[in-house]
Fold each of these.
Amino acid sequence: MQAYRVYIQPKMFPAKSQTMRNLLIALTSALVFLFSLAAFAQTRQAGQQPGANSTATGQFDPHDLTGIWRRRGGDRSISAKAPPLTPEGAARMAKNIPARSRNANTPSTDVPSESNDPAFACNPKGFPRILVDTAHDWHEVIQLNGRLLQLWQEERRPREIWMDGRAVPSGENLDNLGPAWYGHSVGHWDGDTLVVQTVGLDDRAWVDVFGYPKSADARVEERYKRVDANTVEVQLTLFDPKYYTAPWVSDTKTFKKEPRRNVTFFGWYGLFSGAGELICAPMNASPVNKKGG
């Protein structure tokens, strides 16, 4: 908001004109108020809320992760190099036929229809693949009382992270919940870092596009840190001693906040309004995609 100042030189008014001086000062105050009101109205008409320009000024709340974020940095897997596999992990990976491979002992194919990638058959990508992959990498974060939601444009997929102080599921509780494509996630704030633990992952979903597996006992830890008004950095670690000889620690995944104008289509704001749902629906598939492309 632009400030307007009116300077009044005292010598312009003799002492006997005190009433006139007071009247002019009152008028000046009224003008400043009106200019302020007009600037506020223009901000509201532009679709902004008070404080919405904090991004422009560099001010931000490190605990506020709301908004639409786009992946801008980091490897397409947890990291470019995985830890050595255990014998059980290697045997499991040998069954996978990805369209791309980073493991010399893993068969791969350039023909999508020959791959057994579960995602090629319209199954959910699962977690952590939807986070680490760089294809279709927009998601929106909504923070509620006791929960944080990630809405992924791909699959039109909501992911629920509980922030109400509950314990990470384990033992009989985890057995009762059973495995899920995106697991069961619980988060808490450690200073300005959001720490999320996810367990109960469905082992049919691959870790990444390169065919790396995960067992039903796997646990994933994510650490989110908003480093400036427009940037969130994420690091994650896969703990899976059944399949890997060491924890798999990621590189830094960088997400940039999308300006509202970039995700407003035909007057509708959001990832599912005009931009496409990105749902894998067999009824919509082309002949190539029906073969797994």
Amino acid sequence: MRHLAAVVVLGVLAGPTSADDLPDVKSKAVVVLDAKTGAEIFSKAADDVRPIASTTKIFVAMVVRKHNLDLGGWTEINRVDAKEAAGGARTRLDVGEKFRNQDLLRAMLMASDNRAPTALGRAAGMDPDELVTAMNKLAKELGLAHTKFTSPSGLHGNVSTAREMAIALTAALGDRVLREIMGDEFETVVSKRHSKIGYGTTNAPLVAKKYDVVGGKTGYTKPAGYCFITGARIDSREVVMAFLGADAKQTRFADFNRVAAWLDRGAPGSKLAAKLDPKRPKTAPAKHEIEAHGRVAHKAAEPAEPAEPANDPAKPGPSIEP
């Protein structure tokens, strides 16, 4: 029952720990880290290598920022961008239109437009292959041994782990520009021809405002399932969370709410012990494993997952990605 095991890194506990103290998450791989120290608070299959879909795009954003992307510069969407985005969710960036690079970052990170990654790479002086190479180089620099890229958009082949995606998100949120964009609910993007596109975030907990969500990224492909990485401030602590491989669109957000509520109660059953260095892999201390299997069968039926927030009718344009 390894795939159902929830693993929590523990220090010296005041008393015995029950699996029932832990959040009953449904996503296939989950991790929660303290954003400041890197300490693990909760995990489930956190080191399993899985497809990561459009959560990939935080690496595109970090790479182009490292390559001195001109935020105020204009970039034209071309047929290379259209080709790279083929097979993904619908786009609102038309071939031949020019957009400011900061707006392309918004389109990519808020609504996951698949034509934005290669356009941004080109604006920073990289063709698609060079962009992928730079993304793999960044993963290596961050010490992410299991994170591999073959596609700028995340539509094909990219893999990582919940733990490594949480570490990567910590790095992305350390960039003031990216943090602001990922924490934004809605923006109107205007092309050079004055066409207007309204982009709403796909980060449902950010819109719901039940918790103080810092910002993050969603993703979906059939192989990856529904994915969600996000930062949040809960009980005076900033944390980063990664949920990979959920079976349904709302499950990843319901998992976030389960974990957030658990943290709000003081994270019973867990005590911070490990300090992870995002610059290099580190041998983990001894772990106390808590088998979570059987808990669902003995619980009452779960409440219905929360409905996805409706788009503001005053704000045209739905989010692109599921």
Amino acid sequence: MSDERSRDNSDNSVGTRHAVPVPPQNGAESGDKPDIPLEYYDESYFQRWNYSDRGLGRFSMYWFARRYYAALVRRYAPTDGGRLLEMGCGLGHLIGLLQDDFACVGIDLMEYSVEQTKINAPRAEAYQMDADDLSTFADGDFSAMVALHLVEHLPDPASTIAQVSRILKPGGLFLFATPHPDYSLRRFKDRENDAIGKDKTHINVQPPEQWRAWCEAQGFTIARHFGDGLWDVPYLPVVPKVIQFGMFGLPALAQVVTRTTFTPLSLGVNQIGIAIKKK
């Protein structure tokens, strides 16, 4: 564990470094794919687990995060005004922010998400689709693809990443965010009930090395791979939660507000990957 953390802290930009494949967790190996808990994927999903813990309104963590991810897309995606696909578009707020910069398309397993996306991103296309099967899209169809807290819900992420590579243009951006199962302070949490473990739709929570390996195997260079901060307070007994958020969470807010990528992987509840398809 300490060796992994040492690697994570050493470099947020791993462009030419080749990932060493590690055994997938959560039964992600070929032939042993986890089942999708379809019973949770309806409108009530947005009242459960992490959605129930925080607001979605103006100046909420969610509000700031969507603007942060939009800024990353604008910074790293080709500036050709091409097409952008968000897999697992949720409520549609991200592509609502990007619909004037790209020809945006959102897909989601839930009908409710598609309905909300059409409201919140009226100039985008939205379809009820499974990210396991992207065969409807042509080769090189998109300049950018986004998967925010989507890949951990997939039974076969490696297959989806291969499809992402196929339909993404050379030089195109693949931006993803997904839980880090072994971030530094998780040892102080109840792993069954923290922000990562309590969501029963998280069927493929994998370490950073695995995501790098899957991306690099499909012709991606990892431009940046970093953490989103220690926001899942409390970590310590007795100390009030609000004080702990100031101690541990403010650096995460600073990263979001400054739109930088300085947080080491080991200091993020989630890991954020910026992958560029090789030309």
